[in-house]
Known about the structure:
- With 351 residues, this protein is an alpha/beta fold.
- It is 38% helix and 19% strand.
- The longest helix has 18 residues, at 188-205.
Amino acid sequence: MAAPRSSVDVIEAEAFASAEIACEGLTKGFHGETRPAVDRVSLQVESGQLVVLLGPSGCGKTTLLKMINRLYEPTSGKIWIGKVEVHDLPVIELRRRIGYVIQQVGLFPHMRIAQNISVVPRLLGWERERIEARMAHLLEMVALPSAYLTRYPRQLSGGEQQRVGLARALAADPAILLMDEPFAAIDAITRVCLQEELLEIQRRVRKTIVFVTHDVEEAFRLADKIAILKEGRLIQYGAPLEIVTRPQNEFVEELVGSQNMLRRLSLVKVQAVLEARRSWASGRLLSEREPSAPAVVHPEDDLRSVLASLLANDAQALPVVGAGGQVVGEITFADLRAALAAHVPKVREPG
């Protein structure tokens, strides 16, 4: 017979069932400061979304992030996870339920990688076999060999340590992941690789992620939504394409580079153009033939990469090949111009 569930267990289950995060009038002031670090911020992070907090240094990004897992306590306002306010949860249990990745990695130098990754599962009382299976799965997920489990952090490169930090944050399979400029100290090439790996992991496991960065390119590459902060206040919150095409004010426009045509193209997927063009055909495939052009693109590619392919191949159009290897349409320079001209691309019908 199963043991009865405590009231704390019930509250935790209710909180993390949906993994939505809602901040309501959130404010944090520090002694001696003339203005709040976070000033009446209200926003909602839907379950399974990757939301980026973006803004200049001192705008309140990290302070807001740390209030979610109660590393900082708010001066006023509320934070909800699911239907539960975070202060109704024991702080230790709250933090065990939330993965946390920081810029400095934070691995324990005296522990081997296996011990570092398994910290929270061991605290939660997982059985050894379950922990070992989870570690093997996580190392595969973050593209590290299993031989690294016996190494110490000092024996790994900065990028490898950051991968271990991500694996540790995911070890207990938390519904929520908080990431505080995790790739900022990594070289540019490794940073892009880690960003792509994070996106691939997110496609597979769909965590609710709040990610802090001051890097605009990183924000637009990763985010489902971006929250832009200035001097502790939320200035604009929305999808990347909405922010770059409809900036709230001059500050947002300058921060995100709304006039940057390449950035606009990077926010529109080939699939969006195909859907607009094929609306007349109810999604019917345009062709079953093999592509004859020197290059092809895919529905999930962004238009910035399409432009590069068009220029590199001296082509006016490129075929779009779906997952099954079939040609599902084509994309042209005219489509790129149309995508730049409007929030929702309006493209011509073929023929």
